[in-house]
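lol ok so funny story. i was supposed to be doing the assay writeup but got distracted and ended up predicting the structure for this chain instead. priorities right. anyway since i did it might as well share w the group, maybe its usefull for someone
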Amino acid sequence: MNKNSIIIGYSGHAFVVLDVLHANAIICSYYCEKEEKPINPYDLQYLGNEKDPKHLKFLRQHNIYIAIGENNSRSKVFNFLAHNNLITPFVSHPSAIISPTASLADATIVMPGVVINALATIGKGVICNTSSIIEHECSIGDFSHIAPGAVLAGNVSIGKNCFVGANSVIKQGVKIGDGVVIGAGSVVLKDVFNNSVVFGNPAKVKIK
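and the output, tada:
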């Protein structure tokens, strides 16, 4: 692994990603953003916009970590990097517990205290946020975000580009479609269709 790295995105979520990198003794000296940030708590050097062609050679010489919390934006950055054959490795905090039979794809970030149990499958660019629990045989689609403290009981299926809110619980065997938003603290007992917003205990679909 190249000792020096670059993050793309530099705000609240990025600060947690940087702590994960530091816990793995991964040095990060640069960040990419559309504009330079006025606040720079980790004293990183501003590189510019990652899509600027003049930066591609430099980017190829480093490992790159996507530190963007919003799912669609993270997906777009990942696809740009993949199109240019740039490396976006998976990384997890040392305190996370990950089964050796679990599968995690590129650009996934696993935060402190996360548990990922046997035969779970995690897609590209997923955020497994602080102390979330992903039980046996769960599957999480690309570019979804499992927020802090969320619990996915066994054999739960989460689609692509979903947001599972903090401290929510999803019952064993439930299937969640693509683009679903689950409100914080919700208890999901039934399958949820694509692009739904659900919340409550038990969770119900928000009526527009």
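Helices lie at 12-23, 56-60, 71-83. The chain has a mean pLDDT of 95.
back to the writeup now i swear
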